[in-house]
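Teaching assistant here, posting this on the class forum so everyone can see the example we discussed in section. The complex has two components, and the goal was to see what a joint structure prediction looks like when all of them are supplied at once.
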Amino acid sequence: MTNQPCPPEALQDLRRSIDNIDAALVAMLAERFRCTKAVGALKALYKLPPADPARETQQIARLRQLAEDAHLDPDFAEKFLNFIIHEVIRHHEAIALESASPASSTP
Amino acid sequence: MTNQPCPPEALQDLRRSIDNIDAALVAMLAERFRCTKAVGALKALYKLPPADPARETQQIARLRQLAEDAHLDPDFAEKFLNFIIHEVIRHHEAIALESASPASSTP
C-alpha cells in the first residue's frame, strides 16, 4: 500500500469531482424543467393531454441506448427518466389546472 | 394566435432541446457513477461504512442552495439526490460484499 494516497485525501479528491458533477446535473435539470414547463404551457393551450405514452416509449428506448454507450446501467437510466417524467407530469397537471380555472384565486 | 407556431412544430423544437439535455444528463450520471464506484472501492479497502450521513447532509444543503439559485424546486433537487444516493449505496454494498468474499465465484 505504498504510494497509495490515504483514504481521506483520495476520498476528498473524488468528492470534489462529484460535487462539480452535481452542480452540472442541477443546472441541466433546471434547464430541462424550463423546457418541459414550456411544453406544459403549450399542451394546456392546445388542450393536449399531460402524458404522452408514445413519446415516453421513444425516450426510454433512446436513454437506455445512451446509457449502454456510456457504461451506465440502462435499468437505472430508465428509473431515472421515469422519476423525472413523474415530476414533469405533476407540473403539467398543475399548469392545466391553473389555465382551466384562471379566476380561481379571485373568488 | 397569429405568429404562434403550430403546436407540433413548437413541441418538436422543445423536445429536441429536452433530448439534448437528457443525453448530457446520462453522460454526467455515468461520470458520477465512475467517481462513486471509485469511492466505493476505497471505502471497501479501508473498511469504511457505505453510507456517510454527515457528507449526505452537506450534499443536500449544497444541492438545495444550487437548486434555488437555478430556480429549480429545492425539494425536487433533494429527492433527486436521495434517488441517486440510494443507488450509490446499493453499489457500495455490492462492492463491499465482493471484496469481503473474493472467492465466492470459485466454489
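For the discussion questions: Residues 7-45 of chain B form the longest helix (39 residues). Residues 7-100 of chain B form a domain with the Chorismate Mutase Domain, subunit A fold (CATH 1.20.59.10). Think about how each of these relates to the inputs above.
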